Amino acid sequence: MADRATVPDVGDGPDNPIEVAQQTLLNALKEDAEHRASQAQQTAELELNVWLEKFVMNASMQMDNEAHPQGVIQELHTMLEEQVKSAGDIASSLNALLVSFNEEQARNAQARESLATDAVLKMIEVQRQEQERLLKQLASATYEENAYGL
Question: For a Cys-Cys bond, which of 9, 34, 40, 63 suits 67, CB 3.0-4.6 Å?
Fold first, then answer.
């Protein structure tokens, strides 16, 4: 039994090679699992970054190539339509103004002609009245000469 006391028991003590081997293996497995988890996370992040980069590139290319020119073209088209409409409105207004001006000019010409005709008629009437008065005076003077002079 003394032999037993001198021979250390394999299961006793912290320096047991089996426990040390098991602990080393367990630590290595934990480190491997952590390393795999870290690698899986890095791979997922890398794939996500690649996908996001492609998405951003495609989106920015679409916006640069399609959205802005189409938006600018649409704005220019709208502005052109508004200018055409505005020019049409201005042309209509100018046309109406010209028609009104011509009508007013025609009325003024007629009024001038009418005024000229009225003035001539009044002058003729005044001359007729003066001639009538002069004729009456002449007749009266002639009558008086004949009546008193004989």
Answer: 63
pTM given for the model: 0.35
Per-residue CA distances from 22 to 8, 12, 14, 91, 110 (Å):
19, 15, 12, 99, 127
- Contact predicate 18/10, CB 8 Å: yes
Q: Identify whether 22 is part of a domain.
A: yes
Residue 72: is its pLDDT beyond 90?
Answer: no
Distance, in Å, from the CA atom of 5 to the CA atom of 61, rounded to the nearest integer, reads 82
| Structure confidence by residue, pLDDT tens digits, 77-115 | 899 999 999 999 999 999 999 999 999 999 998 888 888
Whether 105 is in a domain gets the answer no
Structure tokens at 73: 């073209």
The string of pLDDT tens digits covering residues 19-56 is: 999 999 999 999 999 999 999 999 999 999 999 999 98
**Domain ranges, residue 35:** 15-56
Inside any domain, residue 37: yes
Q: Count of domains in the chain?
A: 1
